[in-house]
């Protein structure tokens, strides 16, 4: 790359002052030349290849970590869906036990059976409350198509478009309607 001439290097002066031999002068010239030059193209290519391999390895590790995170997230979602009602199911087990106990007792009076059913209903209501499952009983409320399903309309006194009869209660789970209430809605009387 670079020609060593006697004008470019201080070798003639050093040779005269030191009185060194030819081999020593050649070694000294090589040492000076090595400190004055840039790394060779091969050295730069090798360094670049090492850096590229290092970056590729880091990229592969990051990609694998991303895949692991995605896989773990999918597993967590699957588990959440699979076991989402676990707490609610645990709350319903005493209700089932009470119903089975009531059916197992063949020699009970109607009053005792009714009392047992009422207690079982209280257990069920408690389970619903603990799970944020609330009932919709909209009698005399204004009709809301998001919470109510109108089966029919009847002429009635008072304000139109209000619930005058609830055929089946609806239910809301954490402010989301899971079953709308089946209702009959009032309409204005004709000629009134």
Secondary-structure map with pairings?
Elements: H1 11-18, H2 22-36, H3 41-82, H4 86-104, H5 110-130, E1 133-136, E2 148-155, E3 163-168, E4 170-173, E5 176-179, E6 181-187
Parallel strand pairs: 2-6
Antiparallel strand pairs: 1-4, 3-6, 4-5
Helix pairs in contact: 4-5
Terminus-to-terminus distance: 110 Å
CATH class of the domain at 134-192: Mainly Beta
In CATH, the homologous superfamily of the domain at 134-192 goes by the name Head domain of nucleotide exchange factor GrpE
Structural class: alpha+beta
Could you give the order of strands across the largest sheet?
Answer: 1-4-5
CATH architecture of the domain at 134-192: Roll
Element-by-element helix/strand order: HHHHHEEEEEE
What is the number of strand segments?
6
The largest β sheet comes out as: 3 strands, antiparallel
Description:
It is a single chain. Helix content is 55%, strand content 17%. The chain has 192 residues and is an alpha+beta fold. Helix 4 packs antiparallel against helix 5 (110-130). The radius of gyration is 45 Å and the shape is elongated.
Briefly characterize the structure.
55% of the residues lie in helices and 17% in strands.
């Amino acid at each position: 790359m670079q020609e060593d001439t006697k004008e470019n290097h201080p070798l003639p002066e050093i040779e005269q002052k030191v009185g060194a031999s030819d081999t020593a002068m050649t070694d000294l010239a090589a040492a000076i030349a090595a400190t004055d030059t840039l790394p060779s193209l091969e050295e730069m290519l090798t360094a670049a290849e090492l850096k590229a391999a290092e970056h590729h390895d880091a990229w592969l590790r990051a990609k694998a970590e991303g895949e692991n995170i995605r896989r773990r997230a999918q597993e967590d979602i699957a588990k959440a869906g699979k076991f989402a009602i676990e707490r609610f199911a645990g709350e319903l087990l005493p209700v089932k036990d009470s119903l089975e106990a009531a059916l197992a007792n063949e020699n009970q009076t109607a009053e005792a059976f009714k009392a047992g059913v009422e207690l079982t209903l209280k257990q069920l209501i408690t389970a619903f409350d603990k799970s944020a499952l609330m009932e919709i009983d909209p009698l005399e409320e204004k009709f809301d198509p998001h919470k109510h399903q109108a089966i029919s309309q009847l002429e009635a006194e008072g304000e139109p478009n209000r619930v005058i009869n609830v055929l089946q209660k609806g239910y809301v789970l954490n402010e989301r309607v899971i079953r709308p209430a089946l209702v009959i809605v009032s309409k204005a009387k004709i000629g009134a």
